[in-house]
Automatic annotation (TrEMBL), chain A:
Organism: Nibea albiflora
Name of the protein described by the UniProt record: Cytosolic 5'-nucleotidase 1A
From TrEMBL, chain B:
Chain's gene name: NT5C1B
Source organism superkingdom: Eukaryota
Organism this protein belongs to: Nibea albiflora (Yellow drum)
Name assigned to this protein: Cytosolic 5'-nucleotidase 1B
Length: 316, 213
């Protein structure tokens, strides 16, 4: 089950609020319940664009597994006081957002509720809350909405991830920042067979993978409505190998691995057209948003301590 | 009890002449306790619990005692007592281990919004009437405090149904003068984890005797 929690505060007050994409982790023996993915955001586009794709995924899952409740689930979480509850529901109706579950905490931090909802991914426009969630071990990212959204598929949900400090830990980035590119290459070569440590979004990729496997099990691998992408500055010939080996060892499949060897990510994202792209570096997040991709910043790792706006990517 | 007292304290702070306060009665049918009535009384004093009346009655009479004292809410750890009291129209609540970990600073009342009373369903059972009028009184109390930092907080949880059923519950409560602070629309999600997180002191099931689920 993939549960996403969203913070609709933005919708109500025009301020940017958190989007919590809470996905429930699988294995809830108490009776799994439907997980639907819903996006609530101050900017309509965020909700509108992925919605058809999410609905497609859920519809096809229901077709194949009518008894199962393992679906995408989106939960809206807000620290709004419930006295705007009716207004909130009216707004959800008005914008035709597909949200059936929500929490209005009346002021207390929604973080505790993320765990209660078995959140797989928390999206918010508030980076503080995102950091809090990350600190609690919940996959989280800060949303950035593009001014203009590029068209995305309605029949296939595409999720793209950066590698280091998103799926993987930031260990390699630390080496690179502390000792430079050569040292980085050396370190990666020496440690090619050592797994990278996991990053904050590994669990979310895992949850997506579980849903994908449900399609594969019914012979729908080629036509799977969920597709995942790795978009990394690592290069295929060298440092990328370790990334692939790690994913394989984790039992995680990624549909397409794009090794940019330092090239800009924007054009690649433009080709892929993901519904959402996760990166730990603001430079890339902003670049993605400029190209019309919904981008989410993962405030994790060494990149946060340095100037987030690097002017150039370096081949890794 | 401490949370109830907190509410009273704050009510009196707002208005020293306030008459809508919580009045706590301790009732026991345990003969052993009755023999040691002075111990019971001094114990409550010792723990700083403000009990205005002590009622020692027999098991047969305790319902009568509830009615004589015009009790609006009966709290007990005994399921039989809850059933008996509910049947005579007294809003009754079963206390359990969960209650022990609840806040002593804020009284948190949870409304289960799944049973929405339809106005056209004939004469209302006693419990429903009692629950409704009690909620209205609580609602009145709540109004004496601001939106935030209130010693009394209302939580709405709708377990089944989607946002429409939550909206219906919000509207219904509002029409009774109950303005909810927190709202959770579970739409089928398990209640357990949410309840542990929310830690209400007690649940009011609108229209049911309190023994559903």
């Amino acid at each position: 089950m993939v549960k996403m929690s969203l913070d609709p505060v933005q919708v109500m007050s025009g301020q940017v609020k958190e989007l919590k994409v809470a996905t429930s982790s699988n294995g809830d023996s108490r009776g799994s319940w439907d997980e639907k993915e819903e996006f609530d955001q101050d900017h309509l586009g965020l909700t509108t664009k992925p919605k058809p794709a999410l609905e497609t995924v859920n519809a096809r899952l229901r077709e194949l597994y009518p008894q199962s409740e393992e679906l995408f689930d989106i939960v809206l979480v807000t620290y709004n006081h419930a006295h705007v509850g009716i207004r909130l529901i009216n707004t959800i109706n008005h914008h035709n957002l597909f949200i059936e579950r929500f929490c209005m905490t009346g002021g207390s931090s929604p973080i505790g509720y993320l765990k209660a909802w078995h959140t797989n991914l928390y999206l918010s426009a508030d980076s503080e809350k995102v950091r809090e969630a990350l600190a609690e071990g919940i996959a989280a990212a800060t949303m950035f909405m593009p001014e203009k959204l590029t068209e995305v598929s309605e029949s296939q949900l595409r999720v793209a991830f950066d590698g280091d400090a998103v799926l993987f830990s930031d260990e390699s980035e630390r080496i690179f920042k502390a000792h430079g590119l050569d040292k980085f290459f050396e370190h990666e070569k020496d440690n090619e067979d050592t797994l990278l440590d996991h990053g904050p979004l590994k669990g979310f990729l895992e949850a997506l993978g579980k849903l994908q496997k449900k399609f594969y099990a019914k012979g729908q691998r080629l036509d799977c409505p969920i597709r995942t992408y790795l978009v990394t500055a690592r290069s295929a010939a060298s440092s990328g190998i370790r990334a692939l080996k790690t994913l394989r060892a984790w039992g995680l499949e990624i549909d397409e691995a794009l090794f940019l060897a330092g090239a800009r990510k924007g054009p690649m994202l433009e080709k892929i057209r993901p519904h959402i792209y996760f990166d730990d570096q603001m430079f890339h997040v902003e670049g993605a948003a400029e190209m019309g991709t919904i981008a989410a910043h993962v405030p994790y790792g060494i990149a946060q301590k340095h100037n987030p706006k690097q002017k150039s990517s370096v081949a890794k | 009890l401490q949370a109830l007292q907190k509410v009273n304290e704050r009510l009196l702070e707002e208005n020293p002449a306030e008459s809508l306060l919580f009045d706590v009665i301790l009732i026991t049918t345990d003969s052993q306790q009755q023999q040691q009535s002075s111990r019971v009384i001094s114990s409550t004093r010792h723990y700083g619990l403000e009990v205005s009346r002590f009622c020692f009655s027999s098991e047969e009479d305790f319902i009568e005692s509830l009615q004589k004292n015009n009790v609006k809410l009966f709290l007990t750890t005994d399921t039989n007592e809850v059933t008996q009291a509910s049947q005579t129209g007294v809003v009754s609540v079963l206390l359990d281990q969960q209650t022990a970990v609840c806040s002593s600073e804020q009284l948190r009342v949870m409304f289960c919004g799944d049973a929405v009373i339809r106005p056209d369903t004939g004469p209302m059972p006693l419990t429903r009437q009692a629950a409704q009028s009690f909620s209205t009184q609580l609602g009145e109390m709540r109004q004496k405090f601001g939106m935030f930092d209130s010693p009394l907080s209302f939580i709405l949880v709708t377990s089944h149904g989607g946002r429409e059923s939550c909206r219906g519950a919000l509207q219904m409560l509002r029409s009774r003068g109950v303005s909810v602070d927190e709202a959770y629309c579970l739409a089928g999600a398990p209640r357990g984890p949410m309840l542990s997180l929310l830690q209400p002191h007690f649940l009011l099931r609108d229209g049911y005797s309190g023994l559903e689920e």
